[in-house]
From TrEMBL:
InterPro entries: Gp53-like_C. Residues 14-98 form the Putative tail fiber protein gp53-like C-terminal domain. It comes from the Bacteria. This is Phage tail protein.
Length: 99
């Protein structure tokens, strides 16, 4: 395809098919979920978002829940001894796909 049919900005890229990939980096909160706004709202819908902890010194699990076309909830848990999960503030990289 003609390269003019691609679009991009900080934290997002749009393909000629209309599909959009967005990505970013946020710090979760130990007190509960935080709302993360996408760099741009998805025009039609967000198919899904996933995240991963970037702290190599701890076993963290990230949880991402789509709210709407504009953002999602982000939570993280530290996996402690005896499979106890505690909310934690940690750095999370995330990626979302939509149209």
């Amino acid at each position: 395809p003609d390269m003019a049919s691609f679009a991009a900005g900080p934290g997002w890229m749009k393909f000629p098919s209309g599909k959009i990939i967005q990505y970013g980096y946020h710090t979760s909160s130990a007190s509960g979920a935080i709302i993360v706004n996408f760099p741009i709202p998805f025009p039609t819908q967000c198919f899904g978002v996933t995240g991963a902890g970037t702290d190599s010194s701890a076993a963290n699990i990230a949880g991402c829940q789509v709210i709407d076309k504009a953002g999602f909830n982000l939570s993280a848990w530290l996996v402690a001894a005896n499979s106890v999960f505690n909310r934690t503030a940690t750095n999370i990289s995330w990626i979302a796909v939509g149209i």
